[in-house]
Amino acid sequence: MKRLLVIARAEWRYWLRSRLALGGALLLAGLLVATTVLTALRMQGEAAERTHHQAEAEAAFLAQPARHPHRMVHYGHYVFRTPPPLALFDPGLDSVTGQSIFLEGHRQNTAMFAASGASADLGALSWLSPALVYQLFGPLLVILLGHGLVAREREAATLATLLAQGTTGRVLLAGKALALLSFVAVLLLPLALSAGVAVRAGDSALAAAALVGAYLLYLSIWGALALAASALLARRAAALATLATLWITLTLVLPALAASGASNAAPMAGKLETDLAMLSDLRKLGDGHNANDPAFAQLRADLLARHGVQRVEDLPVNLRGVVAQVGEQKLTETLNRYARAQIAAEARQAAVLAHHGWFTPLLAVAEASRAVAGTDLAHHHRFLQEAEALRYAFVQGLNKVHTEKLAYSDDVRRSGDALAEERTRVDASNWRLLDRFVFRPDAAGSRIAQARPQWLMLCVWCAVLVGAGLWAGGRIKP
Predict the structure, then answer these.
(1) pTM across the whole model
(2) What is the SS3 assignment for 245-303?
(3) Is residue 56 part of a domain?
(4) Is residue 113 part of a domain?
(5) Which of 262, 371, 376, 434 is such that its CA lies 20 to 30 A from the CA of 315?
């Protein structure tokens, strides 16, 4: 162990003398500070805007004068998703999926107001997050320091002396690995600081530790790769060229090919095709605004028979409200069927893409990072589903008011009778049934477990490359 520490200290002395480690660490730190500040400013601006719009929307919604309840169904309301604390480090899909939804009757709207449109403000570089800096540029710094660990000793003719003094190739490589691992730990200090800030903001310490662990594994993989190349290749130039080629392949080429392959392997129906099919199915359901629609003839007959009356005016409930309730139920079932199909298709495509983490560690760490941070596709899908559940409860609550508090005779005459119109209006207390929407990420344990396949990929990558390093250490020659 003492010999390993001596080798590691000697390596650090060389890095500090050449200012290589210091320059590289400062470069990465500068990038991380810049992207963290930009991400924080963007999130603060979005939070302030979100708070303003939410307060404005709630005030406008609750301040409406007495209205017909179905008018408020169409008036609608916004709900917003607050990003989790770890989104400061890894915004994940939030910048492209949007964080607000407009809830209204008879429709399921998608999330909107994504931040990706702000890329023009920074010359299309606003997508560069601290997580992406680690994923793309962290390996470059590890390569910069690691490519010459053994090859430099060989070129300087000091390798033969080290081996002659009784230092085996594996011990030499282990000492160099210890130095490189300590440099990786220094690189992870900004991430540890961001994770600490997230914990203070309310996130789980377990999730924060898991995020740091994922990037430790990722950069260790690149360190093991750099060590193996430096041990096996005779010259630093050859090692650097090989590692640079691998970096381009594993971080730029393969992820792009994987995304294209996932689209082909799990194709999704186009929006136009889906919308046309959905509209065709919705037309078959009948018009929930029209109690005389033939699609609701059986409902009318059953209702009259159940209450033992001959005329809809004698029913204890408003037929129009009942039709609105049943119509919304059928319509929502159809909309949910298409929404579930879309979610399943997106999940299949994401699963195919995530499987490519076996071919490039970047995809493995990116997926694990998003899952632990709570900014992945699964959280976006849950946001859509919870917002839809709130929308349906809100609309059906107003339809219930329509059914129970409005007389059918007034309802059918309200367009031509001012008194009937007045009697079909209800006060604002009736639409306070809309619950305040609060979206929370999954528990830390669930988020970590969700990334279990990616943890396995990273561990296998690391184990294979460490094994390759041990093999390469046994082949070190002057």
Answers:
(1) 0.86
(2) HHHHHHHHHHHHHHHHHHHHHCCCCCHHHHHHHHHHHHHCCCCCCCCCCHHHHHHHHHH
(3) yes
(4) yes
(5) 434
